[in-house]
Amino acid sequence: MGCTSCATSxxxxxxxxxxxxTCGSDGCNKLTVFDWLSNMSLPGDQEPFNGVEVRFKNxxxxxxxxxxxxxxxxxxxxxxxxxxxxxIGIVTLTxxxxxxxxxxxxxxxxxxxxxxxxxxxTQKDIDIWQKCRNKELSVQTESRKIAIALGLKxxxxxxxxxxxxxxxxxxxxxxxRVDFRxxxxxxxxxxxxxxxxxxxxxxxxxxxxxxxxxxGRELCCSTWLTDFRSVNTSAARYQQLSLNPQKLAGQCGKxxxxxxxxxxxxxxxxxEFPRTDIxxxxxxxxxxxxxxxxxxxxxxFAYDNDGMNWHQxxxxxxxxxxxxxxxxxxxxxxxxYIEDSRTEDNELFNNVVGQDSLTRFDQPKKxxxxxxxxxxxxxxxQNTRKNG
Length: 388
Description:
The protein has a 5-stranded antiparallel beta sheet with strand order 2-1-4-3-5. The chain has a 4-stranded antiparallel beta sheet with strand order 9-10-11-12, with helices on one face. The protein has a 3-stranded mixed beta sheet with strand order 6-7-8, with helices on both faces. The protein has helices spanning 96-104, 123-134, 136-149, 181-191, 202-209, 220-223, 233-238, 245-248, 263-270, 315-326, 366-387; strands spanning 51-55, 61-65, 77-81, 86-94, 117-120, 155-161, 167-173, 194-199, 279-282, 285-293, 298-303, 306-314. The protein is built from 11 helices and 12 strands.
């Protein structure tokens, strides 16, 4: 079974992205886990762990116990215990790795406290499940109209039906507290099912909806990122990025999670750099830092009385001058510590195609102009001969 956009249609033909569950959109491969313990055997005196990880719509996952001893494998569609009724999900992990995942997510590994897996889903269960999934978009549109009519400052971002259709979960985002008591009554009257409201953050909303980021790839939060760490503007400052909200913000409206990916490397490299507010004392005057380059390990300094002229120094030279200043000594000038770093201009790009040009198949327009000029000159000569 795939997501709504790429599942098979009634005649068996794939629809949507036509990948039949192998894409990364919606729920096909979202937040999948590779079972690296699948081909390893347990010790003889240890029983296999009876827990199962089951995935639902938009990467929502829960742990269940296989109390019936079913032979389950990754990708099986199962009916799980829910309140009320049952839900339909897809098995993502079985065996000992489920215990590892539960420990990683700081959940109790007590197998008896987990809800049950009733059975493998029958064709009737799957038909009801797909019928509910197909009407989620129309229900979402109608629910937004009802919320707007009531004047509520909230955004209903997604709707998820339970596998048996007995309950519908409405996910919404709001900046303030929302009184949706009348909204629930109107929803129950309009959709004839049990209603549950769940408020999610803006990052969780982007993870559920998915999309493509400015890097050209699918959003990290909707494919593999499971924990949302706080991102501060200091992460952009350490990486010398311009504090432009339009470039630093993701589709959720918050700072991009990828600002934290290389932050540790930058912080480790900056440990060798002195503080940017350092003052170098020389006989010519005090020099202040104007700019740094982390990758090239360079710093630019300018005298306070001559701020237009910058002098490039290596980090080691700056530390050397700073050490002398701490001892109460001054250097003659900053220029004495400048190293000539002349590098030969190496060819960074080679034309693999050779002398061929991208426009070699285009017909030049100059030839047509020449032909027109020749034709005009011939006509003029003929006219002059006739007149003569």
